[in-house]
From TrEMBL:
Residues 3-241 form the ABC transporter domain. InterPro entries: AAA+_ATPase (IPR003593), ABC_transporter-like_ATP-bd (IPR003439), ABC_transporter-like_CS (IPR017871), P-loop_NTPase (IPR027417). Residues 241-250 have a biased composition (Basic and acidic residues). Gene3D superfamilies: P-loop containing nucleotide triphosphate hydrolases (3.40.50.300). Keywords: ATP-binding, Cell membrane, Membrane, Nucleotide-binding, Transport. Pfam families: ABC_tran. Residues 240-262 are annotated as: Disordered. This is Phospholipid/cholesterol/gamma-HCH transport system ATP-binding protein. It comes from the Bacteria.
Length: 262
């Protein structure tokens, strides 16, 4: 198992956010963190990327317990994480090419020409080759997300975290990003953990997932989002996963609206 979370309890000071969180993510799997607003999805993501320490329980990466490991091991584990933040989090004064080169520079494995070549390759893959020299302020939200994805994967991390990748995107840009994520999984075999509210996106890409409940402060379902949508017994999970899902819109009741030009 690439990532294993066992009996995790998350708190801000004395305030309990979630407890009893356990799941594993294999290589080549897309895992969704689901739940209503404020249930603790971002908090869980912060625990997974090593920004917050568990109040109880463990986060294990390739068999190493992140929080009992020494600092050097932790840094080494962190260097294997790619992260796409909600906003794209690009450096505004740097071109897309410079933004995408940056993780390679920090990694220190390639010389400058090799870094540029690799960054061009990844920008071309996300369809931004022609925008390589533009600044983030001069491109659309969907392009920013794709640039953020390029930056997150340029070092080929084995574990990729996506925070609300489709938020704020129109349906076509969102679909395009989903296709890129699926292609990435095929090509690199990395494990991907995604936090998302976008049901069509979750249904399209996730193989497995966990549903956090704000009321009980515990996970209330675990499984493939499509299966949870169709078979979950918990009413909160069913209600959430049927919301806004175009495959499951209720059929109109009563007489059909008459055609405007019969
Ligand atoms: N730094 C913090 N200190 C204290 N409480 C926090 C902090 N960050 C978040 N919280 C609280 O923890 C709870 C979970 O927040 P979190 O952002 O993880 O939820 P979420 O599921 O990601 O929400 P959303 O879907 O709205 O983004 C919320 O009640 C929030 O107010």
């Amino acid at each position: 198992m690439l990532l294993q979370v066992t009996d995790l309890e998350m708190r801000y000071g004395p305030r309990l956010i979630q407890s009893g969180v356990s799941f594993g993510v294999e290589r080549g799997t897309i895992f969704a963190i689901m739940g209503g607003s404020g249930c603790g999805k971002s908090t869980l993501l912060r625990h997974l990327v090593g920004l917050l320490a568990p109040a109880y329980g463990t986060v294990t990466i390739e068999g190493t317990d992140f929080w009992t490991a020494d600092t050097a091991t932790r840094e080494q584990l962190r260097s294997g994480f790619g992260m796409l933040f909600q906003s794209g989090a690009l450096w505004s004064s740097m071109s897309l090419l410079e933004n995408v080169c940056l993780p390679l520079e920090l990694q220190g494995k390639l010389d400058a020409p090799a870094r540029e070549a690799r960054a061009h390759e990844v920008l071309a893959w996300v369809g931004l080759e022609d925008a390589a020299h533009q600044l983030p302020a001069d491109i659309s939200g969907g392009m920013k997300k794709r640039a953020g994805l390029a930056r997150a994967i340029v070092t080929e991390p084995p574990l990729l975290f996506l925070d609300e990748p489709s938020a704020g995107l129109d349906p076509i840009s969102s679909r395009r990003l989903d296709d890129l994520v699926l292609e990435l999984r095929e090509r690199s075999g990395c494990a991907i953990v995604v936090v998302s509210h976008e049901l069509p996106s979750l249904m399209a890409i996730a193989d497995d997932g966990i549903f956090l409940d704000a009321d009980s402060k515990r996970p209330i379902a675990h499984g493939r989002p499509r299966d949870l949508r169709d078979h979950a017994s918990h009413p909160t999970v069913r209600a959430f996963l049927h919301r806004e899902d175009p495959d499951h819109r209720p059929q109109p009741v009563g007489p059909q609206t008459p055609a405007l030009n019969p």
